[in-house]
Amino acid sequence: MVIPISQWIDNIPRGIASKLNFDGDSMAPFVTDYGGINRAAPPTAIFCPSSAEDIAALLRFAYDSDSPFPVAAWGNGGSTRGQAFAPGGVVINMAALRVGGRRISVSVDGMYVDVGGEQLWISVLEETLRHGLSLRSCVDYLYLTVGGTLSNGGIGGMVFRHGPHVCSVLELDVITGKGEMITCSPELNSDLFYGVLGGLGQLGVITRARIGLRSAPARVRWLRLFYTDFHSFTRDQEFLISLSHPDGFDYIEGQALLNHQKVDDPTFYSNEDTERINRLAAEFDRMYFLEGAVFFDSASEADQKVKGLLKQLSFNPGFAISKDVNHLDFLNRVHIEMTHRQSSMTGDDSCTTCFHPWIHILVPMSRIRDIHDGVLKGILQNTIPKGVILFYPMNKNRWNDIMTGVAPDEEVFYTVESLWTASTEEEWKSFDARNNEILEFCDRQGIKFKKYWPHYTTQADWERHFGLTKWKKFVQLKQRYDPKAVLSPGQQIFKVIEHQATHVSRHA
After folding, report:
1. Measured in Å, how far apart are the chain's first and last C-alpha atoms?
2. Selected residue with higher pLDDT from 293 and 78
3. Is the pLDDT of residue 408 over 80?
4. Which end of the chain has fewer CB within 10 Å, C or N?
5. What is the pTM of this model?
6. pLDDT tens digits for 472-493?
7. What's the pLDDT score for residue 77?
8. Which residues of 296-313 are buried (b: 16+ CB within 10 A; e: fewer)?
9. Is residue 464 classed exposed, middle or buried when 0-12, 13-18 and 19+ CB atoms within 10 A define those classes?
């Protein structure tokens, strides 16, 4: 039975109703996301909670309603394919929980931090560093929420040593699709704990996470090593991630530069370095750089360590560039570069409404040469790159396969990311067409990749993504913790019910 919108509003408990915003103008930020590509019908309302209990009350009401309506948690709007949409339902604006201050508590003795799921990683780091502690692993961009990241995995240049963010989690508070508030850990309610990590928001809303910490270094030696040979580039990366701590780098990523692409990052390169690198780029269709970092307290020890490592690598002679920075500036490097770039843009260079048709796949090491030849030398050979192409390996033994998140079935696999930025609709469609070509190429060649930030539209595709065993387990967990499929409909994973609330939207 479809409940008329007036009756639906009348039935909302007063404590929930006072935190719902039905104003049409307030919906605008929640019908498009960071990708700028996918748009949805607006939600019926935006929910601004002041506590986790408010979220639990909303979800209990949604679950118990005669016509259950969809609910999605919106962190900082970092989704690229509409994953946080709730058309006709309710979007939880998690940022509202930050209004009362930071829900961040550091235990120095326990070497962990308890943090609200709505908190940004930059805030977490600023607080832990006051106590001389830092995160074990870290995403590249710190202006993402804790809950959103843990629902996906959380990867970056320290994953090869410490695993993704989800592998540093010790305990969670989760509100299920039934509105149950459950504390879980590897020992307590472990099925929910492992299910939520990498679970794409399908089993519950993360309202608190206890995350393991490590001692923070005083400084970071940040390096970029340039290559004109792909085999040398990947061989050196694979060698470096094979080294145990403290013998190797503490951070490793890599980038590909296509079609004589120039570097332009005054936050890292001197004018002289920029000129030298761009002269080299002019000679080669493709160039690559390995980005590494050594965390240190003693500069002399860092000198000795880096000197020894560089002797074992095969980068182009004379093209090793480094700088020393403090730990927070290194971890926040992407935001610092973005801010500098935006402040220097004028006229045609600016992008007031940008699209981000991104693609991010995890590829077995045995097929990385095929990706290079078929994608970089093939599909993208005539593409003028506008964005970053990341290319770096990880160790599978640092991932916990019990969790819902998935990775390729090889001991070493690569992340391959094309992080395009388009300024026009025509441009994003062009980049998106190439993204589809890349996926079709992988399918034709039998490359068993996995999508990170996955987006599919059929359950058959989702089953292939997770694999039959993990998919069956995921379905069982969904039936247990969100049997009416209230949570995160934008992911389009479980179409168990037709959300009748889509018919009662004021904007229908």
Report:
1. 17
2. 293
3. yes
4. N
5. 0.93
6. 999 999 999 999 999 999 999 9
7. 87
8. beeeeebeebbeebeeeb
9. middle
Average pLDDT over the chain reads 91
Q: Which of 83, 102, 81 is nearest to 91 (CA)?
A: 83
Q: Which helix (H) or strand (E) holds 442?
A: helix 425-444
User: Of 201, 263, 277, which Cα lies nearest the Cα of 490?
Assistant: 201
Please count the other Cβ atoms lying within 10 Å of the Cβ belonging to residue 413. 25
Neighbours of 441 (CB within 10 A): 16
* Closest listed residue to residue 152, CA positions, set 365, 407, 458: 407
**Residue 407 structure tokens:** 């990775």
Could you tell me if 165 and 212 are in contact, meaning their C-beta atoms sit under 8 angstroms apart? no
Length of the chain (residues): 508
| Cβ–Cβ < 8 Å for 439, 371 | no
For the stretch 16-52, pLDDT in tens is 999 999 888 888 888 888 888 887 788 889 999 999 9
Tokens encoding 450: 């996995």
Q: Quick check: 299 and 218 in contact, CB under 8 A?
A: no
- State the pLDDT at residue 9: 63
Q: Give the C-alpha separation, 98 to 101, whole Å.
A: 5
CA distance 42 to 37: 15
E strand or H helix at 355, and its extent?
none
Radius of gyration from C-alpha coordinates of the chain: 23
Give the sign of the dihedral formed by CA 373, CA 374, CA 376, CA 381: positive
Tokens 């090593």, located at residue: 225
Cα separation, 237 vs 259, in Å, equals 22
Distances (CA, A) of 175 to 55, 117, 155: 8, 11, 24
Cα 403 to Cα 380: distance, rounded to the nearest angstrom:
34
